[in-house]
Design goal:
- With 392 residues, the chain is of the alpha+beta class.
- The protein has 2 domains: 175 residues, FAD/NAD(P)-binding domain; 166 residues, D-Amino Acid Oxidase, Chain A, domain 2 (2-Layer Sandwich).
- It has 9 helices and 20 strands.
- Helix 1 packs parallel to helix 5, helix 1 packs across helix 8 and helix 2 crosses helix 8.
- The relative contact order is 0.19.
């Protein structure tokens, strides 16, 4: 970082230090770039999407492109573990549970895994209950078991990336809300922060729910909805039944859709509904428990995991949903030096990969991975008549 008069200079400014922005700072610093990361709240805050204990990392996805991207994600997590000298990936196996006439098609998943050549097995309800008697499942259910499914740490993983980024020379500033971004005629940008103006060659925007607060200053917006989700921890009487190795993580592939974990660092069972929360304004939302959401989830668990126990705590977390629930990994159209990363409420498993791909776009203007499905000018983000669908 260099300072001339009131202006500081950096090669890149990264806006937002959740999982995606932290991974991007790490990647840019690894490549010797002078990078400043700016976070409006304190690092590790719980007002965004990257806090709490755990997130799912899996291969089973609804398109071959996503399945291929998961292969990169596993590789990037392994690299992060090596660099950090700590274990971050807990492989527990995963069950995608498709009840009779599911709202989500199992064929999309089996065909995508087949095309990429990822192993899995299909089980009946009886087959699952024989192997994992914790489950009570309806006849006619089909389960897809993928053995590599894993748990990665949310808050801890983000902190590891922040610490590594700093160790490579990145400057991370908390309580530094960006209030304005301007393109300079002669190239480069000015970024307004409480500490003054930052001049930089390029910008990476990883502001998730607040992305349009930043982009609107540059004449662009992305259609999105922010929902306030809730996860709940249940206390089973016999927690050893739900220990890693005794039970896989699971996703109920229907509408409503639910997902859950074996125990992770505490004798509880965590579960949640996917896309079950109300649409909110991220600046106006609270964090109190939604009793109705908790009761709905508890009712599902009483049926599917009867011994999972009573709910002991819940916490809120934001989903930022694009209309097609696909990512944004893209330069801003016509403004190639501003790159945007959004995880569309399923991006944590790809955080280290987002960091690498966003750094490729920021530094080289291109990457070897086909990101055309994640461009900002794709029809789902530009066609006002596009019908949003979030269940995948
Ligand atoms: C309940 C829940 C469960 C999930 N489960 C999974 C899962 O199992 N697997 C998975 O892969 N994904 C999962 N996700 C999605 C995943 O967590 C998110 O996609 C990911 O964390 C998004 O990271 P982010 O860095 O983009 O967003 P955030 O963590 O929200 O970071 C954005 C940051 O930008 C900052 N910011 C905004 N505006 C400004 C500004 N003007 N100036 C400075 N800073 C600013 C914000 O304060 C925030 O810290 C889940 C999400 C939730 C909520």
């Amino acid at each position: 970082m260099t300072v001339t008069g009131a202006t500081e200079h950096a090669d890149f400014v990264v806006i937002g230090l959740g999982a995606l922005g932290s991974a991007t700072c790490l990647e840019l610093a690894r490549r010797g770039q002078r990078v400043v990361g700016l976070e409006r709240f304190g690092l590790g805050h719980s007002w965004g999407a990257s806090h709490d204990t755990s997130r799912i990392l899996r291969h089973s996805y609804h398109t071959p492109d996503y399945v291929r991207l998961t292969q990169q994600a596993y590789g990037d997590w392994a690299r992060l573990e090596r660099d950090a000298g700590t274990s971050l990936v807990s492989v527990v196996g995963g069950l995608d549970l498709f009840p009779p006439e599911p709202a989500i098609s199992p064929v999309d998943y089996t065909e995508s895994l087949d095309e990429v050549g990822i192993d899995y097995e299909l089980l009946t309800a009886a087959g699952v209950m024989h192997r994992w008697p914790q489950f009570q499942l309806p006849d006619g259910l089909i389960a897809l078991h993928q053995a590599d499914a894993a748990i990665v740490p949310a808050a801890r993983g983000t902190r590891v990336m922040q610490d590594l980024a700093r160790s490579h020379g990145a400057e991370l500033r908390e309580l530094s809300p960006v209030s304005g971004v301007r393109e300079l005629g002669g190239g480069g940008f000015e970024v307004d922060t409480p500490q003054g103006v930052l001049h930089c060659g390029g910008i990476v925007v990883c502001a998730d729910a607040w992305v349009n607060d930043v982009l609107s200053g540059l004449g662009h917006t992305i259609p999105l909805e922010v929902t306030l989700e809730q996860v709940t921890y249940f206390e089973p009487e016999r927690p050893e039944q739900f220990a890693q190795g005794r039970m896989p993580l699971w996703i109920w592939m229907d509408d409503p859709s639910y997902y859950g974990f074996p125990s992770y660092g505490e004798p509880t069972v965590k579960a949640a509904q996917d896309c079950g929360g109300p649409v909110v304004d991220p600046d106006q939302r609270g964090s109190e428990t939604d009793e109705e959401m908790q009761a709905r989830l508890a009712a599902h668990l009483r049926q599917m995991l009867p011994d999972s126990g009573r709910p002991v705590r819940s916490l809120r977390c934001q989903y930022t949903l694009t209309p097609d629930r696909d990512f944004v990994i893209s330069p801003v159209p016509g403004l190639e030096s501003v790159v945007v990363g959004m995880g569309a409420a399923h991006g944590f498993k790809f955080a280290p990969t987002f960091g690498r791909l966003l750094a490729d776009l920021a530094v080289d203007g291109r990457t070897t991975t086909d990101l055309s499905a994640f461009r900002m000018d794709r029809p789902a983000l530009t066609d006002p008549d596009y019908q949003a669908h979030w269940l995948v």
